Amino acid sequence: MPRGPVAAAAAMLAAVVLAAPAAQAAPERSGAGAVVSTAAVTEAAGRSYTATAVTGNVRTTLRFTFNGGQKLTRADLDRVGARLGLGKGSLRAAPVRTARTGAAERPSATLRCDKNPSWSNANGTLAARFNCHHSTINWGFKISARVQSVITGNVHESGVSWWRNGRRMPKNAGHVVGRSYHFHGTLKPVRHADHVQFQDYMTFRVNIGGRPGTGSLTWAADVTAKK
C-alpha cells in the first residue's frame, strides 16, 4: 500500500458489536475526540464473543452475544469466524467488561483535496473525500457481504456525528434501510487545515448458524483536511 493511504488508514477504525438489546450503547464522545464506547454484556456470560483484527493500520473489533443456547466450543468459534472472514483462533469468549476504542486514539490522517481513498476490512468499506472547492467532506460506507449475510432485517443507522476543530457540528440524518444500502453523506463546512472527527453507529438483528441476536456496527475516522 502506498505511504499516503497507509497514513490515512491509521485514522480509520471499524467495529462490529453484536450484543443483546438491553446491552446496546450508542457511541460516546470523550473530550473533543470521536471515541466509541460499547457496553459490556453482563447478563449473557458465556454467550458473548469477540475478535480483534489488524490489517495494515486498520483495527477491527467484532463482538456478539447470542440470545440463548450453549457456549460455543473452539471448533464452533472457528466455524463462525471463517464465515465472517476472521482468521482461525481470532474469535474468543468476550471478557465481561466495557470495550473502549476510537479514532481519537490514533493520529489524525491527512485527507487531500479531490483524492478518493477507501479502506476495506472484514466489516465493510469506508471512503472519504475532501472537496475543497465546495468546503465539504463526502463520505460513504458499505457493509461487507459477509456481515450482510448474518443480518436478518433492516439496518438502523443513527446518522454521522462529527466534530470540526473540537467543536461538535450538526449531525447527519439517519436511515432505516436494507443491509445492502450504500450509506453516504456530507460534512460541511470543512476548510483547509480543519481537524475533523466523524463516526457512525448502526444496529440490526442477526442470525448466525441458526442462533439469533442483535448486532451493531460502529466506524470512526479522524482526519485533517488539506488542499
Number of strands: 17
Which secondary-structure class do the elements indicate?
mainly beta
Which regions are unreliable across 5 or more consecutive residues at pLDDT < 50? Answer: 1-43, 98-104
What is the overall silhouette?
A: elongated
Give the N-to-C terminal Cα separation. 22 Å
- H-E order: HEEEEHEEEEEEHEEEEEEE
Main beta sheet: 11 strands, mixed
Radius of gyration equals 17 Å
Oligomer: single chain
Q: What's the rounded overall pLDDT mean?
A: 75
Number of helices: 3
Helix content: under 10%
Question: What's the short story on this structure?
Answer:
The chain has 227 residues and is mostly beta strands. It is built from 3 helices and 17 strands.
Could you explain the architecture of this structure?
The protein starts with a helix and ends with a strand. It is elongated. With 227 residues, the chain is mostly beta strands. It has helices spanning 3-9, 74-83, 145-148; strands at residues 12-18, 35-38, 48-55, 58-65, 92-93, 99-102, 109-112, 118-121, 124-131, 136-143, 155-157, 161-164, 167-169, 175-177, 182-187, 195-208, 211-226. Helices cover 9% and strands 47% of the residues. The strands form three sheets. Strands 1, 3, 4, 5, 7, 11, 12, 13, 14, 16 and 17 form an eleven-stranded mixed beta sheet that branches. It has a four-stranded antiparallel beta sheet with strand order 8-9-10-15. Strands 2-6 form a two-stranded antiparallel ribbon.
